[in-house]
Amino acid sequence: MQTQNDIPIKDLTTMRLGGSARLLTDVNTNDEVAAACREAKAKSLPIFVIGSGSNIIAKDQGFDGLIIRMRIPGFEIIADDDGSTTICVGAGENWDSIVERAVNMNLSGIEAMSAIPGTTGAGPVQNVGAYGQEIADTLVSLQAYDTQTDSFVTLSKADCKFAYRYSIFRGEAAGRYVITSVTLRLLKTQPRPPFYDSLQKYFEENNVQTFTVKIVRDAVMKLRQEKLPNPKYLPNSGSFFKNAIVNAEQIDNLKAIDPNIPLYKLADGKYKIPAGWLIERAGFKGKLLHGMRVHDKNALILINESAASYDDLASARDEIISKIYDMFHVRIEQEPLEI
Ligand code: EPU
Predict the structure, then answer these.
(1) Which of 125, 212, 282, 291 has the smallest CB count inside 10 Å?
(2) pTM of the predicted protein model
(3) Per-residue model confidence as pLDDT tens digits over 59-77
(4) 224-236 as b/e, with b when 16 or more CB fall inside 10 Å?
(5) Is 243 close to ligand 1, i.e. is its CB under 6 Å away?
(6) Listed residue (122, 5, 135) closest to 56, CA to CA
């Protein structure tokens, strides 16, 4: 385990903004996680865990603490029966290579989450999801280092309190746990229609009638490639805003403002409004605000084209949020975590 000093956080995140971190250490084993956490405690420094930095925004003042960069590898089959295979994956594994392995094994449950950037350990933090699947659907449990009790623990799916783009790791337990591995139960059945709207449309347009995990993976990769800018060339953090969730009582008012507003009814009686639609409707699609470009193919994504600082990004974000609030009385929220 090697610790480096004074590291520019912008080099660690795909949005490429922000100040410096006091310390950075890569961890490859559970022992290194425990040692890094003990070191931080001894120095009274906060810790922040990152994977590949694709869902993290760093502020200009930097981070006066220890960044733990998760590198723990591993892919193990821990149970297998007629209908399912359960795998345990190291938190540092690249998420898409795990999806690819699962698809090659003909297992279903995560194929629609193909080509999402980032590491496996980051998945449960924001309950990562795409095209109708989210990690909470297949997660059985996860293993983590608990910095409060200085011990390794297993947390069940229920312990994580998953909701749309939410878990305890970005709520009540933020900063407490270092996730070291994730256990997923995948099914031996093949995916079946109807699929998530845009995926279903893609299959219909291309006259696809047989569905396998591989066919779904390939379709999702194609759709993502068309709509999501590659952070290697265009710095971004994927969806910059969460979709809005509104109560049934707000629906009449919203329809009066715009009868074409897309509304998706959720199981709990609330409604989801795509934030991308609200941003486009507010006239921001393709626009440059304070050096941040609202992506012209998907308004939910902000690209750091020429922002000088986190403050530029915050100005762009706040301008978008307040205009949407003024137009619709709906307050959309930032999706990536902040350090
Ligand atoms: N829309 C617009 N204009 C836009 C973008 C979207 O009108 O510029 C509307 C369309 O009506 C479209 C609807 O928004 O039908 C929904 O769009 P889409 O199905 O592409 O999904 P999304 O809600 O924009 C979510 C996730 C993505 C994920 C896609 C696909 C969130 C915050 N984002 O986006 O996740 O890939 O679904 O399932 O939930 C990410 O989290 O980084 C991410 C990319």
Answers:
(1) 212
(2) 0.94
(3) 999 999 999 999 999 999 9
(4) beeebbebeeebb
(5) yes
(6) 122
